[in-house]
Amino acid sequence: MRKALQVLVVEDNAGDARLLQEMFSKEKPGSFQLTHLLRMSEALLHLEKGGVDIILLDMGLPDGHGLDTVRRVQAVAPGVPVIVLTGLDDEKLAAEAMKEGAQDYLIKGQIESRALPRALRHAIERHRMQSETDLIRTNQLQFKDNFLSHVSHELRSPLNAIYQFVTILLDKLVGDLNQEQHDYLDIVLRNVKQLQAMIEDLLEVTRGEGGKLTIELQNTSVDEAIVYAVNTLQGAAAAKGITLSTQIAGELPLVCADPTRVRQILIILLDNAIKFTPADGAVKVIARVLKEDPNQLLLQVSDTGRGIAEGMVEQIFERLFQASDPAQAGRQGLGLGLHICKELVTRQGGKIWAESAPGQGAVLSVTLPVFSMRNLLAPSMKTGGTAGPLMLLVAQIEAPAGWLSDAARAEHSQGARELLRRCLHSEQDVLLPKMGSSGAAELFFVVVAADSAGCESLTKRVRQQFDERELEQKAGLVLSTSCHSVETAQRNMGGPKGAPFEWVAAKFQTLVNEELSSRMTANAH
Amino acid sequence: MPTKKILLVDDDPDVRLAMHVRLKANGYETCFASDALSSVTEARKQQPDVIILDLGLPGGDGFLVIERLKRHPSLAVIPIIVVSARDVSGNKERAIKAGAKIYLQKPVDNNELLANIRQTLGEPEQPGDADITGNWKLFA
């Protein structure tokens, strides 16, 4: 015999509740077990105990109303299907409830006693199937990501062996090569690098899905990134007879982004444009401040290729997207480039989109937020503008013996940044992003919402942390700090009353710039 | 100055050979081990100046090797450079805590490896050392 279905009725109207009870009483004994409660609070307590198969929920309770009732019930008992009970004129609300996850709705006064048990059983069945589908989908995605990650890791080792021995030959470590041998090995190396890039793309995507993609925001020059990307791809463009040019509008402001990632974005976009542009075509990089929003910098890569097929301008950013006619693109790659691009741009607070008409080339546009001291300082200004004192703490770590490698430098810099972040105890202190470095020194700037005594105690904390991690003994790093008062800024506040915020931000920017340039000259000597 | 000797511990013979050729071309002598147990035996026999150690090894992983090496007073002083394909997160801290000096993630750029070996041995830097970011590494 089937177990009785445990039905929880949450309904404060005695008449409605009695009607439902009567309907259930006509069913075969033992097929339904009814629990009737009047309030949300009681229902939630009951649900916590478990054992309920389905909930009949009134959306107008003394202690719960509307969609909120559905959300609260589902929060406590996510696995139990819900049928909402509504009045005749509330069908709209019922539809909303179904969007929230309710399985069905019944209109009070129109419930047919013979249809009720069927509605309940269907709701339970539908709910079960839905949960199963969701679970399968989650598992599939997880499996795919694990699979991709595993495969790419496994592909790396043999490929690395090929790379190692090809470079051993090319570097003539085991004897001279004739020109032809050298040329052929160069082709092998080029293809190995292509494969390596594809594998890294795959890993990047699985990292992106797992939220492991690292992005270190700092004030970044887009000009430098453009020069770098254009230099990197100039050869590839020339080989296809494509002109690669840049059009940069005046002096560009710095953006708040990760320079490595900006270069990566540009390289992907240029590589793509070159791939889809025929011989004698042109690829152009355009950079300017966005007219509609001066807080955004616009980067565009345009080409004279065959354009993007109609209706595809959104799809090209999807994972594993491939152009429909691969013959024209030559070797295509995995269809991950633009997907990675989108991930990178979005994670840095920007947007990416494509515009194209078939046969007339394509324009890929990216926006990145302009670096703004004002926006960065916003947390420090929360408490009534500039009323409280603000100090600038400058911390410098230096490797007097020189940094071992770029990687070591980046790592210690990252470590120092985390160390500083841990020392800030107030939500009002702001650790500014990396503003630049010079020679053997890495500089960090903290806007401290405190007076000089507060700044001193923060300095002490930083020093303590630094000593605890024995960075001096182990890594040979030297920490030095200094505090700068912005008091003068506040005393002079009489003048620019209208925008003290802008004024303080500008003052800090000047302080930071002065500090940077003085260290730069100090380290140059 | 006598030639410095480097013990290469990796279970992949191709990796060992490639490293050997590179290191020999840069004036180093090499010796090898391919599993956890023999790496300790080999270290005792050869008394290398540096040990380059992979983490995934048959017969016990690289952490075990570090632990064993640190137990012998004569071997504990030999600097260890871990070179592993495993993710930095977690593994690096663990390796350094166990006593490794440097953690590098595979694939390692040749110049970066050489720079780290030179630094570990207290040798002067070479012109190629600083230039450690090849183009393909951009995507790493």
Structure commentary:
The complex is a heterodimer of chains A (525) and B (140). Chain A has 525 residues and is α/β, with parallel strands linked by helices. Chain A folds into four domains: 5-113, 3-Layer(aba) Sandwich (Rossmann fold); 144-209; 221-369, 2-Layer Sandwich (Heat Shock Protein 90); 385-524, Alpha-Beta Plaits, CATH 3.30.70.1130. Helix content of chain A is 48%, strand content 19%. Chain A has 16 helices and 19 strands. Chain A has a five-stranded parallel β-sheet, sandwiched between helices. In chain A, strands 9-11-12-14-13 form a five-stranded mixed β-sheet. In chain A, strands 15, 16, 17, 18 and 19 form a five-stranded antiparallel β-sheet that branches. In chain A, strand 4 and strand 5 form a beta hairpin. The radius of gyration of chain A is 32 Å and the shape is extended. The termini of chain A are far apart. Mean pLDDT of chain A is 82; it is low at 491-496. The longest helix of chain B has 13 residues, at 13-25. With 140 residues, chain B is an alpha/beta fold. Chain B has a single domain (5-139), classed as Response regulator (Rossmann fold, 3-Layer(aba) Sandwich). In chain B, helix 5 (88-98) links the parallel strand 4 (80-84) and strand 5 (102-105). Chain B has helices at 13-25, 36-46, 62-71, 73-76, 88-98, 110-120, and strands spanning 5-9, 29-33, 50-53, 80-84, 102-105. Chain B starts with a strand and ends in a 20-residue tail after the last helix. Chain A binds chain B through residues 153, 156-157, 160-161, 163-165, 167-168, 171, 173-174, 193, 196-197, 200-201, 204, 232, 260, 263-264, 267, 402, 404-407, and chain B through 12, 14-15, 18-19, 21-22, 25, 85, 106-107, 110, 112, 115-116, 119, 125, 129-130, 132-133, 135-136, 138-140.
